[in-house]
Write a structure and sequence with these properties.
The complex is a heterodimer of chains A (257) and B (276). Chain A has two domains: 38 residues; 210 residues, MetI-like (MetI-like fold), CATH 1.10.3720.10. Chain A is 81% helix and 0% strand. The radius of gyration of chain A is 22 Å and the shape is globular. Chain A starts with a helix and ends in a 6-residue tail after the last helix. Chain B has 276 residues and is α/β, with parallel strands linked by helices. Chain B has two domains: 165 residues, P-loop containing nucleotide triphosphate hydrolases (Rossmann fold, 3-Layer(aba) Sandwich), CATH 3.40.50; 67 residues, no CATH class. The longest helix of chain B is centred in the C-terminal third of the chain and has 23 residues. Chain B is globular and about 55 Å long. The chains are: A mainly alpha (257), B alpha/beta (276).
C-alpha cells in the first residue's frame, strides 16, 4: 500500500472521530449559553453525568441487558433461516418461483406496523420482542443472500464441475463463499433494522429494555434519561457495526480494499 | 446425442494406436442456430492439438463438449478412459477463473482436494507445479493481489496439478500482453515436454498455434466446420524466441494465415453494417 493512501486513510479516520466530538462541543456551548432550551436539549455533559448515575445504580445495565438479549435471540432466529432460504432461492429455480412473490409482496410492509399483530400472536412476553427483531433481520438477509448466489459468475460453477466437485462441495466451496460478501451486507442491514425494531417493540408492553426506558422517561418528562437511552442505542449500533466490519474482514479476506 | 467413453481397442492388428479423442459427426445447435456442423476428428494421445478459427466459429463450444460441460446435439464423442487415479480432463478457462475466495495454494490444489487425494500427496504435487510456474512464493496470496499473468499461471498450475489425461485450454493467454505471453509459452512448453499429455488448445493467434502445436486445425466461420488440419513439423523442444527466426516457422504462419484469412473475411462480411 502506498504511503499516500495510508496517510489519507488516517486523515479519514481522524475526521470521522473528530466530527461527532465537534458537534457535541457545539451543543454543549449552545446549551450553556442558553441558545437552545435545556428542557429539550440538555447539555451533553449533563447527559453523560446522568448516564453514569444510571449505570452505577444498575438500572441502565438491566435495560441494556434485556435489549441485547432480545436483539441477539431475534438475530439468530431471523438470520439462520434467512441464509438457508436465501441460498436455496439462489440455487434452485422452483424454490425461487415459490418464495420470490411472497418476499416481494411482504417486504414493503413497514415492520413496525406488524407490532400489534405480533403482540396478538405472541403475547406481551419476550417472544413478541424476539419475533419483531427476527422479522427485521430476516428480509435484508434473505434478499441479499439470494442475490449473492445469483451474482456468482457462471465460470466458477463450470470450474467446480470440471474439477469434480460433488453437490455438497459445490455448495461449500462455490455457492456459500461466493455469496458471502453480500450475505455480510445483508447481516449488517438486518442488525440495524433489528435495533430499530427492538426499541419500538419495547415501548409497548415491556417492563424493561432501552425502548421501555425511553418511553417511560417521556411519561415522567425525564428528558435526560430519554437522551441517555438514545445515546446508548447509538453506541450499541456503532459497536455492532464495527464488530460486523471486523468479522467481515476476518471471514471475507478476499474482499478488496 | 451420444457421449460415451470407450477403452482403446484391443487386439487391433494395425500399428496405429486408437485415438485419445474421437469425434464423429458432432453437431451443436444453440436453439436453432447451428454452431458446429458435423465435426469428425481423431486426436492421438500425447498430441498438442491446436484449434484456430475466427470469432464465433464454435471453438469454445467444441472445447466445452470435450470437457463434458455441454452435450452435442448430434453425433458422438469418444474419449479414451483415463488411467486409474487420473481425471479424464482438466480445463484452463478463458479469463479469470480462479476462485477469489481461495488463496493461490488452495486454488491450485482444488481438483486434488475435490478428489480426496491424501494431503501429503497434494502438498507434493501442488508445490511442484507452483514452483514450475513460479508462483510458489505467492501461495498465500488471494487472486485479487495478483496480476493477470500471475493468475493465469496459477490456473495452469491448477490444471496440471490435477494430473488429468487430457488438458483443455481455452485461449488461456488471450488477455495477456506480448511479453507475458511469450514467457508463458516457454513455461507451458517446458512443463508439457515433461508430461506429454494430450492437449487441446484453442486460440485465435496463428503465431501461438504454430509456436505450441503439433497439429493445427483451422475452422471455418460459423457454423464451425473443419477447414483443414495442418501438421507442424518443427523440432522439439522448441525455443519460443529462436523458433520465430526459422524459415519453416514463417512459412507455416503464412500458410495458416492464408487459410484463416478467407474465414475471417467471411465472418466479417456477415457482421451487421458490412457491405456484403
Amino acid at each position: 500500500m502506498s504511503s499516500v493512501r495510508t496517510r489519507s486513510l488516517w486523515s479519514d479516520r481522524a475526521i470521522s472521530i473528530l466530527s461527532p466530538l465537534v458537534l457535541l462541543g457545539l451543543w454543549e456551548i449552545c446549551a450553556r449559553t442558553g441558545i437552545v432550551d435545556v428542557r429539550f436539549f440538555p447539555a451533553p455533559s449533563n447527559i453523560i453525568g446522568h448516564l453514569f448515575e444510571l449505570a452505577s445504580s444498575g438500572a441502565l445495565w438491566r435495560h441494556v441487558g434485556a435489549s441485547l438479549y432480545r436483539l441477539a435471540a431475534g438475530f439468530v432466529v431471523g438470520c439462520v433461516p434467512a441464509i438457508v432460504i436465501g441460498l436455496a432461492i439462489g440455487l434452485y429455480r422452483p424454490i425461487r418461483a415459490a418464495f420470490d412473490p411472497l418476499i416481494s409482496a411482504t417486504y414493503p410492509i413497514p415492520k413496525s406496523s406488524l407490532l400489534p399483530l405480533i403482540l396478538l400472536i405472541f403475547g406481551l412476553g419476550e417472544s413478541s420482542k424476539i419475533a419483531m427483531v427476527a422479522i427485521g433481520v430476516f428480509y435484508p438477509v434473505v434478499i441479499n443472500t439470494a442475490a449473492g448466489v445469483r451474482q456468482i459468475a457462471p465460470i466458477f460453477l463450470d470450474v467446480g464441475r470440471n474439477f469434480g466437485a460433488s453437490r455438497f462441495n459445490m455448495f461449500r466451496t462455490v455457492a456459500l463463499p461466493g455469496a458471502l460478501p453480500l450475505i455480510m451486507t445483508g447481516i449488517k442491514l438486518g442488525a440495524g433494522m433489528g435495533l430499530v425494531l427492538i426499541a419500538i417493540a419495547e415501548m409497548v408492553g415491556a417492563k424493561q429494555g432501552l425502548g421501555y426506558m425511553i418511553w417511560n422517561a417521556w411519561e415522567l418528562f425525564d428528558v435526560q434519561t430519554m437522551y441517555v437511552g438514545l445515546f446508548v442505542i447509538a453506541i450499541i449500533g456503532f459497536v455492532m457495526n464495527a464488530g460486523f466490519d471486523a468479522l467481515e474482514r476476518a471471514i471475507v479476506p478476499w474482499r478488496k480494499g | 446425442m451420444t457421449v460415451q467413453m470407450s477403452t482403446a481397442a484391443i487386439g487391433d492388428s494395425g500399428p496405429v494406436p486408437a485415438p485419445k479423442i474421437s469425434l464423429r459427426d458432432v453437431t451443436k445447435r444453440h436453439d436453432t442456430q447451428l454452431a458446429l456442423d458435423r465435426i469428425t476428428l481423431d486426436i492421438p494421445a500425447s498430441t498438442f492439438f491446436v484449434v484456430v478459427g475466427p470469432s464465433g466459429c464454435g471453438k469454445t463450444t467444441l472445447l466445452r463438449m470435450l470437457a463434458g460441460l455441454d452435450a452435442p446435439s448430434e453425433g458422438r464423442i469418444d474419449i479414451a478412459n483415463p488411467q486409474p487415479g487420473h481425471p479424464q480432463n482438466s480445463m484452463v478457462f478463458q479469463g479469470d477463473s480462479l476462485f477469489p475466495w481461495m488463496t493461490v495454494w488452495d486454488n491450485a490444489a482444488y481438483g486434488l482436494t475435490m478428489r480426496n487425494v491424501p494431503k501429503a500427496r497434494i502438498d507434493d504435487v501442488v508445490g511442484h507445479y507452483l514452483n514450475k510456474t513460479g508462483m510458489y512464493g505467492a501461495r498465500t496470496l488471494y487472486p485479487h493481489q495478483l496480476s493477470g499473468g500471475m493468475r493465469q499461471r496459477v490456473s495452469i498450475a491448477r490444471a496440471f496439478a490435477n494430473d488429468p489425461d487430457i488438458l483443455l485450454m481455452d485461449e488461456p493467454f488471450s488477455a495477456l500482453d506480448e511479453q507475458n505471453k511469450t514467457l508463458l509459452h516457454e513455461e507451458l512448453l517446458r512443463i508439457w515436454e515433461e508430461t506429454r499429455k494430450t492437449v487441446v488448445f484453442i486460440t485465435h493467434s496463428v503465431d501461438e498455434a504454430v509456436t505450441l502445436g503439433d497439429r493445427i486445425m483451422v475452422m471455418t466461420a460459423g457454423p464451425g466446420r473443419i477447414k483443414t488440419i495442418v501438421p507442424v513439423d518443427l523440432p522439439r523442444p522448441r525455443n519460443v524466441v529462436e523458433l520465430r527466426h526459422t524459415p519453416a516457422y514463417g512459412e507455416l504462419v503464412y500458410d495458416i494465415w492464408a487459410q484463416l484469412r478467407e474465414e475471417v473475411d467471411r465472418a466479417r462480411s456477415r457482421e451487421p453494417g458490412s457491405k456484403a
